[in-house]
Amino acid sequence: MRFAVLASGNGSNLQAMIDAVQQGRIQAELVGVISNIPDAYALQRAKDAGIRALVVDHRQFADRDAFEAEMIAVLLNWQVDVIVLAGFMRVLTANFVNRFSGQLINIHPSLLPAYKGLNTHQRVLNTGDRFHGCTVHFVTAELDSGAAIAQSVLQVCPQDNVQSLKAKIHVLEHELYPRIMGWIAAGRVALLGNQAYLDGQPLLEPVRFMHEQLMRCIK
Question: What CATH number should be reported for the domain holding residue 166?
Fold first, then answer.
């Protein structure tokens, strides 16, 4: 199976994917990385791993449709099976999402459907939630609303702040995203209509992983 990654920043999730492929935990090929930011470090991570790295700078296009048309052309040329969003900081239009329906996945730093959008860690702290985490989901035209596949969960501790939660969620993401990519590469996950399936069975709720170390608060 052929995966492409869209990234806008540092690319730490991309690095976790690269490591997982190299270690044989994902039986698939990372065929290329596209970034809309020319100096995104994710591009360097791709080059260091021998993966095609391409800049499609949204600022160089007349409008969003033209920008996405260029990405669509590249992805079709690469004969991509699955497109993975890894810190890609552009909202994709319905035209793009529908073109690749069932082939687009994302990871979001909350336990969806809670806290769609930005600033999830601060919002969790403001609400006083006991648990926080991340969700791998299919992408639809409605922001952060596609069918969820799996979640990883941690406990919010009294001493946590935005930076500590961000660091902990990165640990969860770097474990969860490659795991689910491995499931997809093995043909275990599919989207039919708006319903996610795992091993041929509908996922009525996402698979949940409780991170043992991060489920305990250090006193």
Answer: 3.40.50.170
* 124 shares its domain with 193: yes
Q: How far is Cα 208 from Cα 57, in angstroms, rounded to an integer?
A: 36
Cα dihedral 75→12→140→166 (10° resolution): -170
pTM exceeds 0.90, yes or no: yes
pLDDT of 219 higher than 70: no
91-115 pLDDT per residue, tens: 999 999 999 999 999 999 999 999 9
- Whether residues 37 and 89 share a domain: the answer is yes
User: Domain for residue 137, yes or no?
Assistant: no
Residue 213: its pLDDT value, please?
83
Same domain, 53 and 111: no
Measured between alpha carbons, how far is residue 209 from residues 64, 154, 183 in Å? 37, 9, 15
How many domains are contained in the chain? 2
* Residues designated as active site: 108
- Joined together, the tokens standing for residue 1 give 């199976």
* Domain assignment of residue 62, given as a range: 1-100
Provide the annotated binding site.
11-13, 64, 106
Q: Which residues carry a binding-site annotation for (6R)-10-formyltetrahydrofolate?
A: 64, 106
Q: Examine the domain organization and report whether 50 and 149 are in the same domain.
A: no
